Amino acid sequence: MSGQPEVRHDTIRAPQRMPEVHVEALAMQKAQRKTRRRAVVDLQLGDSHPVEGDDLEWSFSYRVAPQ
User: Fold this and answer.
1) pTM of whole model > 0.70?
2) Domain 6-64 class?
3) 52 by DSSP, 3-state: which?
4) 59 near 43, Cβ under 8 Å?
5) Residue 18 burial by CB count (10 A; 0-12/13-18/19+): exposed, middle or buried?
6) What are residue 10's phi and psi, to 5 degrees?
7) How far, in Å, CA of 13 to CA of 59, rounded?
8) How far apart are CA 32 and CA 40, in angstroms?
9) Domain residues of the chain, as ranges?
10) CA dist 48 → 27, 38, 56 (Å)
11) Full pLDDT tens readout for the chain, 67 residues
12) Residue 39: which residues within 8 A CB-CB, separation 6 or more?
């Protein structure tokens, strides 16, 4: 279906002390880099879990608007 937005999933690492709003902004930047010129809509942060050191790995999903 060409008119439907494509849903994508990814992860991002961030320091544990970083506020969630900043993590969301970094996730949006990563999503925009991956989609190039297509619009990213409805980004949602998912769960986080500790990884090495004081970092957290966050999951997130977003929709890519059709061209």
Assistant:
1) yes
2) alpha beta
3) coil
4) no
5) middle
6) -160, 180
7) 9
8) 6
9) 6-64
10) 13, 27, 6
11) 567 889 999 999 999 999 999 999 999 999 999 998 889 999 999 999 999 899 999 999 999 998 7
12) 64, 65
